[in-house]
Amino acid sequence: MKILFLAFLLSCTTYSLAAMKDAYQISGTVTKKGGGPLEKVTVLLKGKNVSVQTGTDGTFKLSVPLALRLSTQQKQNLSFVIQNNAVTFLQGAGKLNGNVTILSGNGKCIGSTDFSGLNPATDQIALPLLASGINIIRVTANGNVYTCQVVQLGNKLHLLNKHITSSSDAGFSVTKSAAMYAAVDTIVATKTGYKSVSLPIESFTLNNVSIEMDSIVETGDIAWGRKENPTADCKVGTLPEYSALKANSKLPDPFLKLDGSRIKNKSEWACRREEIRQQLIKYVFGEKPIPAKGSVTGTVSTTKISVKVSEGGKSCSFDVTVNMNGATQPAPAIISYGAGASAPTGVAKITFTAIEGGSGAKNGPFYTFYGSNHPAGYLIAQAWQISRIIDLLEQNPGIIDPYRIAVTGCSRNGKGAFIGGVLDNRIALTIPVESGIGGTVALRLVEQLDPKGEWPYHAISYVRWLSEVALGKFTTGNNANADNTDRLPVDIHSAMALIAPQGLYIVDNPSGNYAGLDARSAWVTGNAGKAIFEALGVGDHFAYEGASGSHCQWRTQYNASLNAMIDKFLKGNKSVNTGKVNTDLGNKPDPKQYYDWDATELPGELW
Q1: 551 is catalytic
Q2: How far apart are CA 346 and CA 1, in angstroms?
Q3: 242-290+337-345+402-455+467-593 sits in which CATH class?
Q4: Which of 129, 420, 456, 602 is least enclosed by beta carbons within 10 angstroms?
Q5: pLDDT tens, residue by residue, 220-248
Q6: Which of 71, 411, 521, 561 is catalytic?
Q7: Fold match flag (1-216 vs 242-290+337-345+402-455+467-593)
């Protein structure tokens, strides 16, 4: 191989690079945390006069003239020879410290060799084999960076420099017009009101760059989709006891605050949401504790997630299985309690075994940790386990993306999946299937619409899915005389509201083959939930599909909405059309006969 001689001169100055004939292309999408495209974001390549703004769909495309940018003026000359994949320095005095890095033409690192105390008169650096085509040789010596591009064609090296004609048959002298470059490796995204994002890149021909931006957190700002309970900082007054509550056959107004005033702007929703959450805990579900930070440990792999919770001398542990299902890491995933929505190829499958029981001491990891007589129902215990899985994924985000998680299940497992999404806002998409009482059915509506179905008392007696302590004050039997759930200041439509602005897709079975699904109550409750989402400006985040058939048998009618919701909330395609409501229920009751509050969209933003 001919010797390639590269001499870097003292007189280099910084200047802008001229565009070359073949530009590199970098494209992608910018979204905001909590979901949704982010427009008018400035996306630039650090160190270059190259920038664009995202469109309404959050997408951008950068056309980059070079994979290198000019470095600052150098303070010393440095010459070196490349021969037979070795670098020999020609500077005659002083020791050198630094490294030699070889990158492919698109910026992918091929190899790097560090050196310390190198004597340029006697020592040389062995290099990895160069790639075919363009190579970037970057030498860092005593804090200064020297970079050039060469191309290997067969066994010959050619220096790439638009200002000179090169040939492998002679030595090459790099003049100041070729200058010294440092490799560009950072995209920066900026927008007023959002934290700037710097994203290292490994290639300069990317077409799927994903950038997520968080709003600048100030007093009152809410980290939707990033916290188990994003509204925990809101202060809630003392909730009334059962004896002070008044009966109301209609679904309570979700926008009416405890002080009797009604919220007028989306910005007020967060603290009203916290009021609803605490009402549901006090009157329906029982408490869902959040362990102290650092108490959750474990391991995450492509086949299993092992969770351990330790705090105050107490501990519990459990495992779930993982099937990557052809997904690229970090992968979106569906946590399945059992039968429910299937994960399409490219979405990992996590299988969770839900523990429940009838009378007697309660069992499972939650009750091991908090005691077998804890008043929370089994759905809370299951939801607590799901949240601890997400805690661990947040600590180990490389395999499963902790913020692209869905939960699903059918029948009793549909109840569990629903409550899991209600009480952990990090869950991007909740998919309860045929969940019945304790799931997506308003408790007070059963007496009015489905008296031959499954009553609220069933959810605290047959299996204590809900809290027998909390809800037991409102129902003592499976009949009208024993049911006073109309005194609840909240109901299941209120629970649906806690999921917003994340995604909720309710799958139902109105056939009547299984009266326990309370089909008419489910339809009205779903529509009331949809109305809340619309009032909050996220109506397309709520979908409902009712198709008659056998219990827990997935039907093709469900697929269109399922695929759309997965595309939007797990795969990041925010432009997909979602939010449809359909059913084949006969003699459908008019949902608006069962609530009398205004569902007009509120002004403002959910921050």
Answers
A1: yes
A2: 47
A3: alpha beta
A4: 129
A5: 468 899 999 999 999 999 999 999 999 99
A6: 411
A7: no
